[in-house]
């Protein structure tokens, strides 16, 4: 019986298979037709009418098969099939894991675009920071000079105020 590409045998067939199996040399479907073609234009030979042979007589031969060879081969193939099935299941499980990781991860192009924009923004902010610190240093230096100028003007004013009475004495004398 053939089901889903597998051959299923009953107990009797298995016993016959293990012990002795019958092999027919030919079947009626494989009979030999020995008629001569009467339309043969190549050879002009007298046609001899022969009787058609519908069936070829066959003998049933019994072949003793070593029982261990096929069983051993079957077991090896069965074990190999199990191993490959396990490997396939493991691979399918791993593929499923990777698919879920891909679904949950950020696409690489978006990630690279965002990181590129972020680094550009960081570079711009660093440039602004450098510019701001330079400006602050210039302003601090200018403030220092202004304070120094203010002190110098105050000192000059005090000197002039201190010298004014002397100057008035010198002028009105």
Would you mind describing this structure in some detail?
There is one protein chain. The chain is mainly α. The chain has a domain at 2-25 and 55-104. Helices cover 64% and strands 8% of the residues. It has 3 helices and 4 strands, in the order ββαββαα. It has helices at residues 11-18, 67-104, 108-171; strands at 2-3, 6-7, 20-24, 60-64. Strands 1-2 form a two-stranded antiparallel ribbon. The chain has a two-stranded antiparallel sheet with strand order 3-4. A hairpin with a 2-residue loop joins strand 1 and strand 2. The longest helix is centred in the C-terminal third of the chain and has 64 residues, at 108-171. The radius of gyration is 56 Å and the shape is rod-shaped.
Q: Compute the number of strand runs.
A: 4
Main sheet specs: 2 strands, antiparallel
The computed structural class is mainly alpha
Helicity level? 55-70%
Tell me the β content.
Answer: 5-15%
> pLDDT average, as an integer?
79
Strand order of the largest sheet: 1-2
The helix tally amounts to 3
Note the run of SSEs as H and E: EEHEEHH
What would you call the shape?
rod-shaped
Summarize the structure.
This protein has 173 residues and is mainly alpha-helical. It has helices at 11-18, 67-104, 108-171; strands at residues 2-3, 6-7, 20-24, 60-64. The protein has a two-stranded antiparallel sheet with strand order 1-2. A two-stranded antiparallel ribbon has the order 3-4.
